[in-house]
Amino acid sequence: MKKDAIPVLGATLLFCTLTPRPPLWAQDSILQLDPAETTINFTLGATLHTVHGIFKLKSGVIHFNPASGEASGAILVDAASGDSGNEARDRDMHRKVLESERYPEIAFAVDRFEGRVAPEGQSDLQVHGALSLHGLEHEMTADVSLQTAGDQATATTHLIIPYVKWGLKNPSTLFLRVRDTVEVEIHAVGHLTKGGT
To answer: In the chain, what are the domain boundaries?
Structure first.
């Protein structure tokens, strides 16, 4: 090794030693949702009574970087799983409104988020992405409360979906009038991998 290369090599090693590496939690992380533990409830207001029901999660995997706000992945809901407890009403919902045989999935594809993700405890985030419903994509932002403890995570959000404005049929009849928006409450439970790739 040349004599004049030694100071350069030493300075390089010193720089590498003193330059702080990003913490593990600032690197890409993965949130994988558990379909068995995740609940998706919907509420549809009507003139005679309010309709309550559920959907089932098919899968959900979100990759995100807590430091940069970058995110990717999707949450997939089984459209055919929609159940309000009334067979005739659910048949109309699937055949006339959701057309779930033709559009079997409702998907929310995530592309970024705003807000600080705490290593432990609660984080309030604004998650941005596109909701695919009935064959069309709609840009939206969801307010999400994320709670983490070790490798366990829960996320809750409340959405108001303007389904009629988005092109779906209003199931109102002569004697039963329903609202043109539906409220959705999601309580997701999952496994968190910090510093994943």
So the answer is: 24-193
